[in-house]
Amino acid sequence: FRGAFALKSYQEPVLVSSTDSVGTKLKVAFKVGRHDTVGFDIVSHCGNDIVVQGAEPLFFLDYIGISKVEPAAIEGIVTGLAAGCREIGCALIGGEIAELSDIYTLGEYDLVGTIVGAVEKADVITGEKITPGDQLIGLGSAGLHTNGFSLVRRILFDRCGYDVDTYIPDLSATVGEALLVSHKSYVRSILELRKVCEIKGIAHITGGGLPANVLRILPDGCLADIRKRTWEIPPIFPFLQAKGDVEETEMYRVFNMGVGMVVVLAPDTVDAALASLNASGESTFLIGEVVAGEKGVQGVGS
């Protein structure tokens, strides 16, 4: 099986790709018996991973490895995949379902996605133009997204003994509802922002949190000074920290802590950028700036 895609006209196209999995968030989906959110998750995650370089998503392919094909589960997964692709404007051109009873536990599966996008060579966002004085804009997350679920499961299921149907007043949701909130897509917002101003760098805040992901985009001589308490932290994070007795440095290393993406901009473009992002429906926060110093990230437990 294969998919074909007709590439629209580019002067000097650079193809940008990403492959990732939903990870152990799937274990929560199995417990809840709901499968439509994880498809959306993987498309959003992969789409965010390529838009950080300015790439417009073109097409997506999925892989589902499962012990025994369960039509209802597959329907839910594909429904989520299709919704995710519509959200970011890319084509779902194919995939693979592998029935592997010797590998996967009955009733469980793995979900992996691959996305390919394109950007003009002159417009690739690399981070190399970042300089001291540039500002850091944080885009609010929807919650956990798709990272840190091994720790989450240990805290809530093993340590606290909660079930997915346990209602948590602090979260105004059941455990299952709180954990299956979809990974937010920033693709359309970033592509609109690119029309308004030059983006010097973007970090998608996934595994490794703010310290590791912001570090990746910094050139030598640049230190990202992130100021805590300049953005709204969703209640799921302090709840997990309290229930798991987790050190703050570990929280910032494992989770996004309410910032799903960081955009680096020159100071004179910040107002226009905030207007664009807010018009796209994003929650935006000025969370810090780039200062001169040894390459690194400070202020968030790094």
UniProtKB/TrEMBL annotation:
Enzyme class: ligase
Matches recorded under InterPro entries: PurM-like_C_dom (IPR010918), PurM-like_C_sf (IPR036676), PurM-like_N (IPR016188), PurM-like_N_sf (IPR036921), PurM_cligase (IPR004733)
GO BP terms in the entry: 'de novo' IMP biosynthetic process; adenine biosynthetic process
GO MF annotations in UniProt: ATP binding; phosphoribosylamine-glycine ligase activity; phosphoribosylformylglycinamidine cyclo-ligase activity
Entry EC no(s): 6.3.3.1
All copies of domain PurM-like N-terminal, residue ranges: 13-119
Keyword Nuclease: no
HAMAP family noted in UniProt: AIRS
Name listed for the protein in its UniProt record: Phosphoribosylformylglycinamidine cyclo-ligase
